[in-house]
Amino acid sequence: MITEFLSLLCLGLSLGFEDEKKNETLTKPYLSALPSPVVEQGRNVTLRCLGHRHNVTFMLGKLQDSGYRQEQRSAGYEAEFLLTHLERKDAGTYFCAYKTMDSQEWSEESEHLQLEVTDDRKKRRAPPGGKATRSTIAATCSCLSIFLLFLSVFLINRCTQHDLSHEESTKRTSHSKLPQQEAMDADSSDLERTSVSAERPPGSELC
């Protein structure tokens, strides 16, 4: 009689313990993205779900797609979901949850994780602004240097031609003044001889 009572007591305690484990609320897990929640198109990303129990089943879901679900058994406290060759349609809001082997109820959902998939082709087509600016500045400086060089040569040439023209005109003026000066000197000599002959008394030439 006592043996049967003890057996029933142990059975009731075990059933009550199992019911308590089934009704136990599981703490919500933590979801993160490795290496980053912003991924270029065609690359891979790992979504890691970290729970508070070991030997559990993890689930990854997507807020925009109710039919999207990945499950993974783990002996530890976390599970990693690898998403490969990402496309624009893979972007969205993800969450994870877990449940124990003894419970059929999932834990609270983790905080939502926003995954962004960027178009790397646009980045490749658009050159960096710094390089483009440096190239533009270099080209402008080169054009300005060439313009200043041509301007200097032009001014030097103009000045040289002006000096040569002035020198030639000076020489022409000097040559044109020489015959006039000689003529004036000749006239002056003739006048002097005429005045001298006029001053001499008559008959002085005979002496």
Please give a structural write-up.
The chain is of the alpha+beta class. Helices cover 47% and strands 25% of the residues. It has helices spanning 2-22, 120-125, 129-199, and strands spanning 30-34, 38-40, 45-50, 56-62, 65-74, 78-83, 92-100, 113-118. The strands form two sheets. The chain has a five-stranded mixed beta sheet with strand order 2-8-7-4-5, with no helix packed on it. The chain is rod-shaped. The mean pLDDT is 77.
Task: Give the termini distance in whole angstroms.
Answer: 203 Å
> What's the arrangement of strands in the largest beta sheet?
2-8-7-4-5
Q: What's the main sheet like?
A: 5 strands, mixed
Number of discrete helical segments: 3
Q: What is the number of E strands?
A: 8
What is the 3D form?
rod-shaped
Structural class: alpha+beta
- Helix percentage: 40-55%
Q: What are the low-pLDDT stretches, counting only 5+ consecutive residues below 50?
A: none
SSE string: HEEEEEEEEHH
> What's the Cα radius of gyration?
56 Å
What percent strand? 25-35%
* Mean pLDDT level: 77
